[in-house]
Structures are given as structure tokens and as C-alpha cells.
Amino acid sequence: MTLLIVRLLYAFVCIGATAAYCFSESSAAPDVVSQHQVAAFFVITLIALSILLVDVLLPKKRVEVVSVIYFGLLIGILLAHLLNLALGPLFGSLGSEGKDFQAGVTMLTLLILPYLCITFMMQTKDQFRFVIPYVEFQRELKGGRPMVLDSSALIDGRIADIIETHVVDSQLVVPQFILQEIQDIADSHDKVRRTRGRRGLDILKKLQQDPKVEVKVAETETGKGKSVDQRLIESCKQFNGRLVTNDLNLNKLATIQGIQVVNLNDVANALKPRFIPGEAVRIKIIKEGEGYNQGVGYLDDGTMVVVEAGSKEVGNEVDTVVTSVLQNSAGRMLFTRLAEPRA
After folding, report:
1. Residue 140, in any domain of the structure
2. What is the C-alpha separation between 164 and 302, in angstroms, rounded?
């Protein structure tokens, strides 16, 4: 609404200023304007309002793009001026013909060098960090670097439980294409995928309503035409953020490209109780394992426990002793043996 008011004020000011310039007797307008006042009024007004039309037709503007064009144009003109100064003595030695050549060379340098500088800086703008182009006019964010969520982290849902613990106070960023991906999953004909997608949307809504965290759904144009994983990595670079995911392959890909990754499985594993070889664990064996004579049970936190020689104890709660622990990003497994009966 405020932007609309500014545009209307601009239009009224343009019309009033143009009318005063064209029709005022004290105006210092040239003779061609004085002799054709009405035509001049409409032409000048049209030129002024054409800027308003361009502004309306280009709603998505980025400060860094405008700054890159400005710096490219400035550097290109400066280089062209320096080049023409350096070539001045050469053209001066050629006499009158040199001056003719100098005018043409000056025109070419003023056309070519600014264009080359602008295109070069637009193609490499993500590798530069200027002070002015990257100033963000927003309230100061609490916490550390933002955390960019992928679809697996939202569908998993544990990120909302982590926020409830007050451990995380960073801004959460959800790129628009991730939101679209979850929407596509929620609209799937497969019942399981549809349920997962709807849960992801519910988790995002819950996070947005939580006053303890700031959630931003960001529109980004980085990596269009590339895979979702690569676009996520480029979004993390754009926001200087950390990637939050459950996808093991995406975790490895992002780590290779220098992106810090918060794997929710690693976070969950880090909070699970620690077990060391020789420690006693009481477990209910619920099924036979894949190995010979093995039994399998689960702790309250979902940790799988493999019991050697436990297949005969299926359905029973037994005392075991930890022999080894296997842990990775996919989870944690305990390998145990049946405890010796007490004498």
C-alpha cells in the first residue's frame, strides 16, 4: 500500500512539474517547447511516467544486481578514460588523421569496456562481497548463522522438537523451491507420500507460529535448471547459512563443497545415552536377527540392540552385556551377548 501511494505521488508530481515547465510564462523552456506547449507537455510527461511503467513491470529487483551494474559501468568508463589517455600521444603523432581515429577509438572503448565490465561482474558477483550491495534493511537477527532447511528435515519433524528445547536461536530459512517440493509431495496420488508432504507443511506452519524462532520463506533464483540438492547448496552459499537435512547423500555432497551441515540423525545420536563395552543392558528381544542365532530388540529411543545367541529368547526380557557399539549418520546399533546367570 505504501509503495502504491509513493507511485501515485510520483505521477502527480511529474504531471504538475511538467505543466509548470511547459505552460508557465516565467519558465526558461526553449522555443520549441514554448511553440508546442501541449505536445511538449504530453511528450515530457510520457517520458517521466515511462520510468513508472518500468518499475511496475520489474517487481523483483535485487540490490546486488543494481550495484553490480553501477560498479561495472563506473569501472568500465574509468578504464576507457585511462586507455584513451594512454593512446593520446600515439594519435597526436599521426597528425590530423590521428584525431579522426582517436574519436572512433574513444567511442569503441566507451562502448566495449563498460559492457565487458558489467557482464564480467554479473557473472562473478557471488564471488565478491561489497559493503554497500549486501547491506540488508531488516531488523537485527538474533543467534548465529541462518539454518537452511531441506524437505527431509521438515518432513522428519524433529526440528520442531529441537526448537522447543531453546537450543536453537538462529533464523530458519526455507527456500521457495523446497516449499514447492513439499507441496508436490502433499499432492501426490500415493497415500504415504501425501501424508509425508502434509506433515512437512504442518511442521513448517508450527515453526512459523513459534515465537522462539524466526522462519523465513525465501525466494531465490540461484541454480535454476539444476537439481534440488545443488540449488540447496547454492542457497546456503547465498545466505551464508548451514544446511539442515536428514539426507546422507546430500550431507556428503554439501560437505565436499564446503557447506556446514547439521544432520538431525547426528544430533539425535549425540543425545542418546552412551554405552561402553561391558555395560549391562536389559532388553526385550522381539524378533530374530539376520545373523545366525541372533536376537533383536530396541531401546526406548529406538536404538537397535543385536543380541548374540538371543534367538531362543524371542519375546522375553533378558539381561545382556554390551560387546561393541556401531554408530554413523544412519543411527546407532548395540551388539551384546547374554549376561551370565548369577550364581
Report:
1. no
2. 21
The three grid cell numbers given for residue 207, joined into one nine-digit string: 515453526
For the chain, the 3-state helix, strand and coil shares in percent, each to the nearest 5, are 55, 15, 30
Which residue carries 589517455 as its cell? 85
CATH number at residue 298: 2.40.50.140
Distance CA(158)–CA(139), nearest Å, equals: 28
- Residue 54 included in any domain: yes
The grid cell for 182 is 513439499
- What is the domain extent for residue 98? 2-127
Q: What are the CB-based long-range contacts (under 8 Å, 24+) for 97-102? A: none
pLDDT digits (tens, 9 = 90+) for 262-305: 988 888 777 777 788 888 889 999 999 888 889 999 987 778 89
- Class of residue 279 by CB neighbours under 10 A (exposed 0-12, middle 13-18, buried 19+): middle
Q: What is the pTM of this model?
A: 0.50
pLDDT tens track for 184-239: 999 989 888 999 999 999 999 999 888 888 888 888 766 677 888 888 888 888 88
